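Example record for the data management plan.
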Amino acid sequence: MKKADVVLALIVLAVCVLWLGGRAFLKKEGSYVEIKQDGELVGSYALGEDREVDIGSGNHLSIRDGCALMTSADCPDRICIKQGKISAMGAMITCLPNRVTVQIVGDGTADETGPDAIVY
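Corresponding structural encoding:
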């Protein structure tokens, strides 16, 4: 390996570490879970309150310790269960066969409802 290859590898590694560290440091925790089925809002629940929610006839969601987790589903592949716990704002669990989405949202303050970016 040439010296330039080593320098390039170190730069790429440093950028990756900074990017991952920034994501972990700047991650915002959400306040609510919004559950939608067929695009219609089924319910909105606070992450701070532990509860069990049945979604339609096939899915079951658990909200515990500030996280949401799909605990059961009658779909064949159960990918929604394998997605694990979510708590960061914008994180989502999706069950395509049952047309269910579970998304973490904020409390609606100005800094969360504004645009992410403005492009001219």
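Summary line stored alongside the record: Helices lie at 3-26, 79-82, 110-113.
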